[in-house]
Design brief:
Strand content: over 45%
Radius of gyration: 23 Å
CATH architecture: Beta Barrel
Number of strands: 20
Amino acid sequence: MKIIRNIGVLGAVTTLLAAPLCAQGPGGLLPTPETKATRQGTRGANFLHIGIGARGGAMAGAIGGTVTGPTAWYWNPAGAATSETISGSGGYQQLYGDLGLTQSYAALSVPLLGGVVGVTLNSLSSGEIRRTTEQNPFGERLGGSTFAWTSTAASLGYAKRLTDRLNIGTQLKYITEGITDANTAWVAADVGTQFNTGLYGVTIGGAIRNVGKPARASGALLQRVIQTTDGSLLAEGRRVELATRPTEIPVTFQFSVGSQILGGAGAILGKGAGSNALNAEITVIDGTDIATQYAAGIEYAYKNTLFIRGGKRMYNDGRELGVENAAALGLSGGFGLRMPLLGRNLRFDYSYQGAGALQNVQIFSFEVGR
């Protein structure tokens, strides 16, 4: 049946986007004394865990306390309050080697209403997948028919500087995912804050993302026509929709502490020599479907033009078990260039992240306006 086939695809993609399972059996994840039960893969819209922007990717996601500009709408909407002119960013992400999964995003920040208003679009695509059935598990006799799984989040946000040290921000998101004629839609909200302590260049940031109600899948593929009769010879076709279980989205909390080690007046090591700057940040991430994760990132800047970055994320969910060169899992790095263009600043960034058995993640992004 077509609906069973599509449900199977949903399960496969959800498992791919969640962390690799440590132990599996006919019934799915089987906990053992060595591998405890987890909540991984139990929420919809798992693509919301995949960060955007090459700077965040290179620093392993440890940027919630210091992130600024349009990409802040994903990491911590409070950081978007720093935009003083119209600014935009966009990017393209190749996920997990040659599996065909891609992600793209675009964000725009506009100073308005005493603060900054932002709109974003974040979309993930599985690429073309060969359509199969139970009778044709490899799809040879289906004429080359294909389909694609798509996940999308669109948002409208507002951020404001309350003082010279305190920023707040929030946004409302509309999230959908699924295949043609079978998808799920949620409405969710993010809220975040950033506070510059004024001590040794330390900034604290916190954000809660994806707070929303569960939703059910719907669409033409979940509908059936059944024949009813009142006992006479007359029969009537009646359209019904299959009942689906409500699916939650992954609520995530992120707390970050960033510090300016070298380069600023309040930096730990002072202004330093010449045009060199060094920033570092540590982050704790927790969510309804992930183990508590820790990340650390560092960024070196030369004349605010050339940037070299690196980071490491500790997933704490056992995904490194059985992975060759497990120490490289969660390691990331990248670079960035910033240059003036027509009175504005144009920024290009690149990052590479190790993903273990899923090969790698490469992100290309740009930003203009800051």
